[in-house]
Amino acid sequence: MASKLVFTPLRLGPLSLKNRFIKAATFEGVMPRGQVSDALIDFHTEVARGGATMTTVAYCAVSPGGRVHRDTIVLDSDRAAQLRRLTDAVHAEGALVCAQIGHAGLVANTLSNRTPTLAPSTRLSAPAMGLVRAATAEQLDAVVDDFGAAAANAVEAGFDAIEIHMGHGYLLSSFFSPKLNKRTDRYGGDTVRRAELARRVAERVRLTVGQSVAVTAKFNMDDGVPGGFWLTDSLPTARLLQSDGHLDALQLTGGSSLQNPMYYFRGDVPLAEFIASQPRAVGLGLRVIGRRLFRSYPFAEAFFLPLARQFRSALSMPLMLLGGINRLDTAENALAEGFELVAMGRALLRDPNLVNNFREETATEGLCIHCMKCMPTVYSGTHCVLRPTVV
Ligand SMILES: Cc1cc2nc3c(=O)[nH]c(=O)nc-3n(C[C@H](O)[C@H](O)[C@H](O)COP(=O)(O)O)c2cc1C
Ligand code: SF4
């Protein structure tokens, strides 16, 4: 047994974490029409068996209009009953399980959803395939209610934690952005007003669940877009979230599924595979704008660390470092620098047993090569294309 910081326990809200490794949300792509499948349960039990202290069920929408597309879970009471099987299975493997909840906003595919979506300010959206109208104040009240209801359902389903999606250009993240949010009411204008919707959501989720589960947020440090949400906004916003006191931790991310997705992945751009995974019309469009949308960023180990350090020195609340963590020494050094947790996406897609291997000292780094060929598989069952046992 390794005597490393990463294998020391931690209290997070009401939770006792056995180590510091969290499986970051990676959309599983096995929820046909939003139903919980055996494949979804298997996906998470495998991660749980592999040693991570907590796995995250990716992107559960808080309402039908907030889905990414029609094969997305809506965290309603029916789904809560179905998800109980998943949370029981993860717990049986000795791990905890978190539900990521969100509203996709401008990233929602409204054709697939057959339901309109919402934006801070009216604008065209490629994923929505058309114009998305600015949400009214009443619609935003309903969004806050929906987050509360989804949080209650997550508790009912047996989740240990709730991660509010405040990143990647989804609805709450789009409200933070000075580029996307041109409102002049209480939800738009300066940094504080643009943070209002996310703060109301965090408050509602906490008031709904009390101290029964941990509540965290996946939070954008930098949209990776000129004129977007960046440190001058994101640091004060994080301070506001900290002083509100509703969140147990922040998971630090960046980028935008709407405007700059590769900023939060880093690595190769598998454009040909992505085009092949799309309906013909979308594929044709991607041939034209694909290289512009999927800008290329070289992979670097712990690529968000320079940004995340700004947050570590500005905040006292627990922080999760995310982004390109593939090595045991990276995780260990992150803890030595004061981050409480590390979150890993692709490293655990490549090898869900990696944390056990770290603990048993049979590996010091993962085998992910950042080819990003797992990304197009989100439409057919997310997996690492290099894993021989998965078809
Ligand atoms: C296939 C795939 C699907 C993803 N789906 C989600 C998602 O549903 N929600 C989310 O917040 N992030 C999602 N991400 C982003 C990851 O959570 C993480 O932010 C990103 O991959 C960087 O971490 P990593 O370098 O450890 O993979 C996804 C990543 C991958 C590779
Ligand atoms: S397909 Fe596998 S090796 Fe390639 S980026 Fe995804 S997890 Fe890593």
Automatic annotation (TrEMBL):
It holds the Pfam family Oxidored_FMN. SUPFAM superfamilies: FMN-linked oxidoreductases. Residues 6-228 form the NADH:flavin oxidoreductase/NADH oxidase N-terminal domain. Keywords: Flavoprotein, Oxidoreductase. CDD domains: OYE_like_FMN_family. GO terms for molecular function: FMN binding; oxidoreductase activity. InterPro entries: Aldolase_TIM, NADH_flavin_oxidoreductase, OxRdtase_FMN_N. This is NADH:flavin oxidoreductase. It comes from Mycobacterium angelicum.
